[in-house]
Design a protein that fits this description.
The protein is an alpha+beta fold. About 15% of the residues lie in helices and about 45% in strands. The protein has one helix at about 5-25; strands spanning about 40-50, 60-75, 80-90, 95-105, 115-130. The chain has a 5-stranded antiparallel sheet with strand order 1-2-3-4-5, with no helix packed on it. The longest helix has 21 residues, at about 5-25. The chain is elongated and about 55 Å long.
C-alpha cells in the first residue's frame, strides 16, 4: 500500500476514535455543550513540512507552527469561519515559510454533541528568501 494511502487511513481511524469520545462530551457540571455566538481558537507548536518534487531532497524540515481561527455560530448545527495556519524555519541564511488560509463551515449533527464534520476551501503558499535581490534592476 502506498504511503499516502496509509496516512489517509490512519487519519480517518484517528478521527473516528476521536468522534467516539466527542459524542459523549459534556461540561464538567454535567450540562450539555451549547454552541452560540462568536468563537475563536489559537495555538503554537512545533511542526514539520515535507515536500516531494523531482530533484528535491525528500527529508522533512522542523520549525515553528501556529494557527488562528475565528468565526460565528449560524445555528446549533452550523459554525462558519476562517482559519490561518502557518509554519516557519530559518536555516543557513534562508527563511522558509508555509501558510494556509481557508474559509470553513463545521456541521454538528447533534445540537449538543461534540462530533462534527468540517468543510472548507482556501489556498496555501510556500516561500523561501535568502535575502538577495531577485529583481536585478540594481536598486537597493
Amino acid at each position: 500500500m502506498r504511503r499516502s494511502v496509509k496516512v489517509v487511513l490512519g487519519v480517518l481511524l484517528l478521527s473516528l476514535a476521536a468522534a467516539n469520545v466527542a459524542l459523549a462530551q459534556k461540561r464538567s457540571d454535567g450540562t450539555p455543550v451549547r454552541r452560540q455566538g462568536f468563537w475563536f481558537g489559537l495555538g503554537l507548536a512545533a511542526g514539520s513540512v515535507g515536500m516531494e518534487c523531482s530533484g528535491c531532497p525528500s527529508d522533512r524540515k522542523s520549525g515553528g507552527s501556529g494557527y488562528i481561527r475565528l468565526g460565528g455560530t449560524l445555528s446549533p448545527h452550523w459554525l462558519l469561519g476562517a482559519e490561518i495556519n502557518g509554519w516557519a524555519r530559518s536555516e543557513s541564511g534562508v527563511d522558509m515559510a508555509l501558510a494556509n488560509v481557508a474559509f470553513v463551515a463545521s456541521w454538528y449533527p447533534s445540537r449538543t454533541g461534540g462530533f462534527f464534520l468540517k468543510f472548507g476551501f482556501g489556498g496555501m503558499g510556500y516561500t523561501e528568501d535568502d535575502g538577495s535581490d531577485k529583481a536585478g534592476d540594481g536598486e537597493r
